């Protein structure tokens, strides 16, 4: 039930700190160690490459998850849009493990890949919010998101839950392989939960940003580098899905290779700047668009901020910034849809789970 909330989407955005804390509880044993099925651990240890398969928002979570698996657990990983995988199947490694990410566990595009790779004799792990779902039943292993029912068509808390569970999976695998990591995911996720709470208390600031900058615009660009880029893809999807503003996410460095031609006087450009190693370069991309008349808004992180930034998120571990920077993006989309009188929870042409290919 929505309770006092006007929309499920807003309720689900607000639930994210609690979901983080539930994930911490569910994936922690009595001795404060990570709790994962030994079978999952063994499969992760045995594989030589991970193929992440997903659609939409879950695909965007997969892009972040790939980084975790490679940077923390040292396993090569690739991410594929489910609907493309079957036509363009890459050459598979000797011992692949398939990881399906799906909030609903019912997405037909992902299921058809699952059926195919099972026929080929490969193992699959499904990360889902619905443990009894098709993708969960038909895979060898399941990791549960514990996000609680997600009703709004626009996925919010499932995305952050997916990223949190992927971080836990990567660290657990690294530890199982005897790798030494200077990163405690449960502690870091607790910091994220607190940061999310700070952000969900700043709705008025985001609403104002929307009113001042996205009121009547027909399009908007999101730019970022490294993991900020992945969050830009998600921010753009959220905005177009519920407010019908044409929005695109771009890698900051790619702009000058074509897209910058679209920048006109007043075009909104939202730039994410939460990564220290690309902070300088993304800010120079912002100068490039500003010089061409763009209405730029920089969303940065505490410690990297400058006075002119439009919004600053609290500081969290650099690998986990997508978990916090996505929250203002979700709220931007929400208020943009609200201001345009769109049906926030049930956008046109869309269904909560896409059960046709
Ligand atoms: O249930 P799934 O995670 O498999 O769904 C995948 C996409 O259909 C879904 O994420 C979609 O993109 C959302 N409406 C985005 O908000």
TrEMBL record:
The keyword Transmembrane helix does not apply. It is an enzyme of class 2 (transferase). The keyword Transferase applies. One of its GO terms (molecular function) is glutamine-fructose-6-phosphate transaminase (isomerizing) activity. Residues 40-184, 206-347 form the SIS domain. One of its GO terms (cellular component) is cytosol. It catalyses: D-fructose 6-phosphate + L-glutamine = D-glucosamine 6-phosphate + L-glutamate. It is found in: Cytoplasm. Its EC number is 2.6.1.16. GO terms for biological process: carbohydrate metabolic process; fructose 6-phosphate metabolic process; protein N-linked glycosylation; UDP-N-acetylglucosamine metabolic process. The active site is at residue 352. Keywords: Aminotransferase, Cytoplasm, Glutamine amidotransferase, Repeat, Transferase. Catalyzes the first step in hexosamine metabolism, converting fructose-6P into glucosamine-6P using glutamine as a nitrogen source. Homodimer. This is Glutamine--fructose-6-phosphate aminotransferase [isomerizing]. It comes from Lentibacillus salicampi. The chain holds residues 244 to 600 of 600 of the full protein.
């Amino acid at each position: 039930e929505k309770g006092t909330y006007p929309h499920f989407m807003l309720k689900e955005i607000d639930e994210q700190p609690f979901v983080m804390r539930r994930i911490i509880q569910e994936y922690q044993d009595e001795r404060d160690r990570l709790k994962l099925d030994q079978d999952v651990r063994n499969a992760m240890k045995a594989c030589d490459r991970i193929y992440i398969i997903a659609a939409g928002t879950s695909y965007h979570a997969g892009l972040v998850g790939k980084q975790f698996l490679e940077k923390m657990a040292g396993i090569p990983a690739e991410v594929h849009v489910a609907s493309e995988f079957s036509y363009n199947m890459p050459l598979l490694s000797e011992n692949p493990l398939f990881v399906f990410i799906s909030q609903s566990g019912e997405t037909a595009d992902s299921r058809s890949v699952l059926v195919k790779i099972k026929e080929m004799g490969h193992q699959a792990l499904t990360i889902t919010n619905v443990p009894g779902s098709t993708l969960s039943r038909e895979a060898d292993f399941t990791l549960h998101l514990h996000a609680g029912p997600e009703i709004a068509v626009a996925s919010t808390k499932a995305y952050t839950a997916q990223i949190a569970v992927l971080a836990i999976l990567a660290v657990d695998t690294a530890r199982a392989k005897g790798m030494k990591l200077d990163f405690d995911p449960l502690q870091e996720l607790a910091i994220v939960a607190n940061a999310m709470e700070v952000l969900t208390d700043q709705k008025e600031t985001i609403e104002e940003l929307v009113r001042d900058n996205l009121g009547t615009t027909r399009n908007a660009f999101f730019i970022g580098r490294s993991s900020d880029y992945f969050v830009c893809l998600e921010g753009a999807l959220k905005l177009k899905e519920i407010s019908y503003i044409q929005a695109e996410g771009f890698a900051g460095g790619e702009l000058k290779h074509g897209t910058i031609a679209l920048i006109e006087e007043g075009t909104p450009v939202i730039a994410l700047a939460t990564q220290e190693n690309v902070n300088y370069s993304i800010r120079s991309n912002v100068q490039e668009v500003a010089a061409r008349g763009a209405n730029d808004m920089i969303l940065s992180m505490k410690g990297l901020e400058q006075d002119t930034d439009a919004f600053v998120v609290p500081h969290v571990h650099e690998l986990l910034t997508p978990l916090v920077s996505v929250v203002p993006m979700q709220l931007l989309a929400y208020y943009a849809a609200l201001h345009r009188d769109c049906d926030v929870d049930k956008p046109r042409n869309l269904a909560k789970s896409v059960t046709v290919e």
